[in-house]
Design brief:
This protein is α+β, with helices and mostly antiparallel strands. The protein is 49% helix and 31% strand. The protein contains three helices and four strands, in the order βαβββαα. A four-stranded mixed sheet has the order 1-2-3-4, covered by helices on one side. Helix 1 packs parallel to helix 2. The relative contact order is 0.14.
Length: 115
């Protein structure tokens, strides 16, 4: 589990880098399947761009970016997008059918086959 924070502009403050690092660490707590997070911070004119590249088990790769005038808002929004995408991919891998219903269905099928 590694986190890399890349600054494309050398004038990005160190406290913003630490903030992005802390937000990325929270993703490891939330999703156990996450293996690697790469946060890219870029600044162009008056707009700031935060980009989260997340790599998880089972070949899941998530990319989310956000541009905003405020650094923290850009980081928070990009993290929120990545979290939503991870949650959706996790839900797709999870079987949502109840085991009780599946067992009942199997009993009905075997009963019909016997008749």
């Amino acid at each position: 589990m590694s986190i890399i924070v890349t600054r494309r502009d050398p004038e990005i403050p160190a406290d913003i880098v630490a903030y992005a690092q802390a937000k990325a660490e929270k993703m490891f707590d939330e999703f156990q399947r996450v293996e690697h997070i790469h946060v890219i911070l870029d600044s162009q004119n008056f707009l700031h761009k935060a980009e989260f590249d997340v790599q998880a088990k089972d070949h899941v790769r998530i990319e989310a970016d956000q541009t905003n005038e405020d650094w923290k808002m850009a980081i928070d929004d990009a993290r929120r997008k990545a979290t939503r995408q991870l949650r959706n991919s996790r839900d797709k891998l999870t079987d949502h059918r109840s085991r009780v219903r599946t067992a009942d269905f199997e009993q009905q099928v075997t009963a019909e086959q016997e008749d």
